[in-house]
């Protein structure tokens, strides 16, 4: 996939993540009333549409890293240390920065007689699982995936068949053994139970990350792009490459239909679970079989755009560097909107929070850059630190 396409996908994924959080109240109300002719049901449909977002973020992270990482010429462990030195700070600094306020509020809420061990255990658990705030679990997942990335990339390059098999087998194992909806049925036959690992454990998300690495090793459209470019250079109008291009257009339409079909499965799956009285968080997990199929359809649909479209920079691409900070900041904007406009429809709240967050992040980026350009060294250092802490660099 070309950079403009992945940038556009990041922006769409960021908007979708905001949709998930902004429509959570609509999910709860719909589960209680099941009113299909309502804004709540539209909010549910929007929420389920957005379920591809977090897996897509992980996929794009791995895809971008694998595409930009060269061979380990200096030796695996040397490159591994250099990779961690360069990448971990981009996650750890924002993670601790955005965890600080909720943890400080928790410390303040404890009484003077609270045992130190109890307080420390609570804080440590929140930091390890990313539960200081409800969206920070993604950074814990990303951190674990980054720790594994050099090893996964090395395996994918030296043993591509093994890595491909591992990727697809891991999808099957996560869906059948780790997703509670299916694992309870499968494991119970062997007298076993679901391990109940926290959602921030990377094992649930590793298949998407591995798939991003896998697709760099064998981008399904790379050879086609080269063939079409060669045909254009030769001035040929009727070439096998052009026929392949037509075929690819047809394939793009087929994948779009597959996305719609799998999205329908996701919504029907959600509806069935809601009628059974299953708690919302239980069946909103990203390892849900229908969500996995839907996400895979979205990924293949994106790859079908690799030829002939999204090959030049566009306005949306300029927003891509802001998406990580949008992810980190949007819950705080959403809280303000919910507190001061409590009766706003969830869809309107989603639009308002999305626009407000992107605008705020854009101005934060411009303001910090302005301070970085100053000659005052302490000011430059403070601006750099703020940018790193907000995930703007």
Key phrases:
single chain; 393 residues; mainly alpha; 17 helices
Describe the structure.
With 393 residues, the protein is mainly α. It has one domain. The protein contains 17 helices and no strands. Helix 4 packs across helix 10 and helix 5 runs antiparallel to helix 7. The longest helix is centred in the middle third of the chain and has 36 residues. The radius of gyration is 23 Å and the shape is globular. The model has no long low-confidence stretch (mean pLDDT 86).
SSE layout and pairing:
Elements: H1 3-22, H2 24-33, H3 39-49, H4 53-68, H5 76-109, H6 116-129, H7 137-158, H8 160-178, H9 180-187, H10 206-217, H11 222-233, H12 240-275, H13 280-283, H14 289-303, H15 323-340, H16 346-372, H17 377-389
Helix pairs in contact: 1-3, 1-4, 1-15, 1-16, 2-3, 3-12, 4-7, 4-10, 5-6, 5-7, 7-8, 7-10, 8-9, 8-10, 11-12, 12-14, 15-16, 16-17
What general form does the structure show?
globular
Structural class: mainly alpha
- The helix content is over 70%
Gap between N and C termini: 23 Å
Return residue spans where pLDDT drops below 50 for at least 5 consecutive residues: none
Report the total helices: 17
Arithmetic mean of pLDDT: 86
Percent of residues in β-strands = under 5%
Radius of gyration: 23 Å
Number of domains: 1
């Amino acid at each position: 996939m070309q950079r403009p396409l992945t940038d556009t996908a990041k922006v769409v994924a960021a908007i979708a993540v905001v949709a998930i959080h902004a429509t959570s109240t609509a999910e709860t109300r719909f589960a209680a009333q099941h009113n299909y002719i309502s804004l709540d049901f539209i909010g549910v449909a929007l929420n389920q549409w957005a379920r591809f977002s977090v897996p897509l973020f992980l996929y794009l992270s791995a895809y971008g890293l694998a595409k930009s990482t060269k061979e380990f010429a200096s030796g695996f462990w040397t490159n591994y240390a250099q990779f961690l030195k360069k990448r971990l700070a981009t996650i750890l600094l924002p993670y601790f920065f955005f965890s600080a306020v909720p943890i400080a509020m928790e410390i303040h809420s404890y009484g003077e007689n609270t045992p130190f061990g109890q307080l420390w255990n609570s804080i440590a658990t929140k930091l390890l699982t990313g539960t200081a705030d409800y969206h920070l679990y993604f950074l814990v997942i990303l951190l674990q995936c980054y720790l594994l990335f050099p090893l996964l990339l090395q395996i994918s390059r030296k043993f591509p068949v093994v890595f491909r098999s591992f990727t697809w087998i891991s999808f099957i194992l996560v869906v059948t053994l780790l997703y509670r909806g299916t694992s309870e049925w499968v494991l119970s036959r062997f007298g076993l139970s679901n391990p109940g690992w926290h959602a921030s454990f990377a094992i649930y998300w590793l298949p998407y990350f591995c798939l991003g690495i896998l697709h760099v090793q064998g981008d399904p459209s790379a050879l086609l792009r080269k063939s079409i470019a060669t045909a254009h250079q030769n001035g040929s109008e009727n070439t096998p490459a052009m026929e392949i291009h037509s075929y690819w257009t047809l394939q793009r339409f087929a994948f779009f239909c597959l996305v719609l079909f799998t999205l329908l499965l996701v919504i029907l799956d959600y509806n069935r679970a809601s009628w059974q009285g299953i708690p919302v968080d239980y069946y909103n997990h990203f390892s849900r079989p229908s969500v996995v199929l839907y996400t895979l359809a979205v990924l293949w649909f994106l790859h079908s755009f690799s030829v002939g479209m999204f090959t030049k920079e566009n306005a949306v691409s300029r927003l891509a560097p802001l998406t990580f900070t949008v992810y980190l900041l949007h819950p705080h904007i959403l809280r303000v909107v919910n507190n001061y406009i409590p009766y706003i429809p969830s869809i309107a709240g989603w639009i308002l929070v999305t626009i407000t967050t992107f605008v705020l992040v854009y101005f934060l980026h411009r303001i910090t850059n302005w301070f970085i350009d100053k000659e005052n060294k302490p000011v430059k250092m403070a601006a750099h630190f703020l940018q790193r802490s907000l995930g703007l660099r």
